[in-house]
């Protein structure tokens, strides 16, 4: 049986520093976990502010390796 390694679709980017930046994102990293805006947009203001102040929120950048594999699969 062949076991395939899982590759992440996103990689962790720079820290998010403001609520405006947070509100413009579709995916973010909270600590080391990828999180969709459906979750973080429902946070209470105090919780979002606390995560920002502690530096726990990061941009989720598309992983170029995954993009190349997806393009090759469509050929």
Strands, helices and their partners?
Blueprint: E1 10-15, H1 19-23, E2 27-30, E3 33-36, H2 37-40, H3 45-54, E4 57-62, H4 64-73
Descriptive keywords:
single chain, 75 residues, alpha+beta, four-stranded antiparallel sheet, 4 helices
The domain tally reads 1
Shape summary: elongated
Distance between the ends:
26 Å
Instruction: Tally the helices.
Output: 4
The SS-based structural class is alpha+beta
Write up what this structure looks like.
The protein is of the alpha+beta class and 75 residues long. The protein has one domain. Helices cover 39% and strands 27% of the residues. A 4-stranded antiparallel beta sheet has the order 1-4-2-3. The longest helix has 10 residues.
Give a brief outline of the structure:
With 75 residues, the chain is α+β, with helices and mostly antiparallel strands.
């Amino acid at each position: 049986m062949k076991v395939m390694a899982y590759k992440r679709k996103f990689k962790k980017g720079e820290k998010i520093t403001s609520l405006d930046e947070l509100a413009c994102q579709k995916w973010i990293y909270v600590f080391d976990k990828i999180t969709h805006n459906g979750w973080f947009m429902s946070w209470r203001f105090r919780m979002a502010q606390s995560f920002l102040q502690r530096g726990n929120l990061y941009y989720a950048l598309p992983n170029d390796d995954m993009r190349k594999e997806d393009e090759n699969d469509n050929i």
